[in-house]
Design goal:
By secondary structure, the protein is mainly α. It is built from 20 helices and no strands. 77% of the residues lie in helices and 0% in strands.
Length: 497
């Protein structure tokens, strides 16, 4: 225990110094990893989870530039997949580097004939890489690795069906998620439907072992069906998945509560889209309650989820005509978004812009047009900065924001927003109406005041903004946390983000 406290506390203090002093503090962390990397391996992920960057970034750079032992890589790999840990952004970025090194090491080894254990490990690492690429916004790479993982599991199932069918079901499910993220909805639907069919057969044979797989596959199929505008079917699948997650959470609350929170959140989103506003209000309220409890214990891991559920609840309240209640939840969500965007604008800038739009819309509908205008201006400024780094993604949206602010765009939302759900259209109309009433004043005195009021962040953004993830309605795909690690670390139950 003394060794743990000494190492953990020492790394934590150095990270806090680096957060205050910048490069000078980061140099101390680099020296620790250069001179005493081995003793830090056991505790460093705990520190990354607790403090965030820069220790995660410095460690990732050290792993890229330095040859470390396979034992250390495997220990880091297993720790990155512990429940809840992988929800922290610096851990995700670190896990991508660790997994790449583990895969490269395994590929460099000379294979033996009929070495199924090696193929199984590679299939698991390919699946992990797909997850981590997706988690950091590299969607095309995520699809490629999901396809490679599926191909490996297919070969393994041919040799030993009983052993690998569950892994094959997860591989189909994973590929469906990745295909949906790049807009290949029909292919995604086919993959997720195959995953559900496989997992249903597995549950018939062994319910206790495979019910969590079925819940995961049903939840993700519901999101694919939503992308295809098949709302009745998507709602049915979401309900079935939520019922299963309730059973699982009742048996193992510590592991099951995050899964249940995500399932209830998505169920509320489906209910809202289907016009079932009373049911959506109850589900969204439950999601907020669950995620508030989770965030109280692990703020870095769950506060952004809480913000999403607050936004969803606010959107349901707005649709029921309760705009004052909607304003309070949206303001709380924005406060959370601001705190994360200040620390990592490259990751959380898009969500900050979205929340600013949401609060501007709420203020506009309450008649507070000057304050609403400040929010819309601040959002446009965030997106302008995003567009500097990702012009193809953000320029059309930024242009629509600016035209709406001055009340001159008669064509509605930009083409990039045309397929987005109702909230995007309403927010655009709120921007345009506010801009017209105020005379379209996009002047220099407004921008500094907006920055002061909303704590604008600076710096380019590297993460793609999902325009379909409008306020309170962002899809949260389900994937098991660590299930791809068969053959490397012990299998366990859990769900990751």
């Amino acid at each position: 225990m003394l060794i743990r406290e000494t190492t953990y506390e020492g790394l934590t203090r150095l990270t806090r110094i680096a957060q205050d002093q910048g490069d000078a503090g980061e140099d101390w962390l680099r020296r620790v990893f250069e001179r005493r990397f081995g003793p830090t391996v056991k505790w460093v992920i705990d520190v990354v989870e607790e403090t965030g960057d820069p220790i995660g970034r410095v460690l990732a750079q050290h792993l890229v530039e330095t040859q470390v032992s396979d034992e250390s890589i495997l220990r880091l790999l297993g720790r990155c997949h512990q429940p809840g840990v992988s929800r922290v952004v610096p851990v995700r970025e670190l896990a991508l580097v660790v997994t790449q090194k583990a895969r490269a090491s395994l590929l460099s080894a000379i294979p033996e004939a009929g070495d199924s254990a090696r193929e199984e490990a590679l299939a698991g690492l390919d699946g992990n890489l797909s997850h981590w690429f997706s988690a950091v916004g590299q969607r095309d790479e995520a699809v490629r690795m999901a396809e490679e993982a599926l191909a490996r599991w297919r070969r393994l199932v041919t040799a030993d069906p009983e052993r690998y069918r569950a892994a094959l079901a997860r591989a189909f499910d994973r590929l469906g998620q990745r295909l949906d993220a790049v807009g290949r909805f029909e292919a995604a639907h086919q993959a997720c439907r195959e995953a559900v069919e496989l997992s249903r057969r597995l549950v018939l044979e062994n319910p206790a072992e495979n019910r969590s797989i079925l819940a995961q596959c049903l939840a993700n199929l519901s999101l694919i069906l939503r992308s295809l505008e098949r709302r009745r079917e998507s709602l049915e699948k979401a309900r079935e998945a939520t019922d299963l997650y309730r059973e699982l959470a009742a048996r193992t609350p510590k592991v099951g509560r995050p899964d249940l929170a995500r399932a209830v959140h998505n169920l509320a989103s489906h209910q809202m889209r289907a016009g079932q506003l009373n049911e959506a209000l109850a589900s969204a309220g439950e999601a907020v309650q669950l995620r508030r409890s989770l965030a109280a214990d692990r703020p870095l891991a769950y506060q952004t989820d809480l913000a999403s559920s607050l936004e969803l609840l606010a959107e349901v309240q707005h649709r029921r005509g309760h705009d004052h209640e909607a304003f309070a939840g949206t303001r709380e969500a924005l406060t959370i978004r601001q705190s994360f965007a200040e620390a990592r604008p490259d990751v959380f800038g898009p969500e900050l812009a979205r929340s600013l739009d949401a609060l501007g819309s709420r203020l506009s509908r309450l008649g507070q047009l000057v304050e609403a205008h400040k929010m819309f201006v601040a959002s446009a400024e965030v997106r302008r900065r995003l567009a500097e780094d990702r012009p193809r993604i953000f320029n059309p949206e930024c242009g629509a924001d600016l035209r709406g602010l001055v009340g001159r765009d008669e064509n509605g939302p930009s083409a990039s927003c045309s397929a987005a759900p109702r909230a995007n259209d309403e927010q655009f109309e709120d921007r345009r109406r506010t801009g017209r009433v105020l005379g379209g004043a996009l002047s220099d005195p407004v921008l500094p005041e907006a920055r002061m009021n909303v704590g604008l962040v600076s710096g380019p953004a590297q993460r793609t903004f999902d325009l379909d993830g409008v306020v309170g309605d962002s899809p949260a795909f389900f994937s098991r946390d660590g299930d791809e690690l068969e053959g490397i670390v012990a299998r366990r139950e859990g769900v990751d983000p």
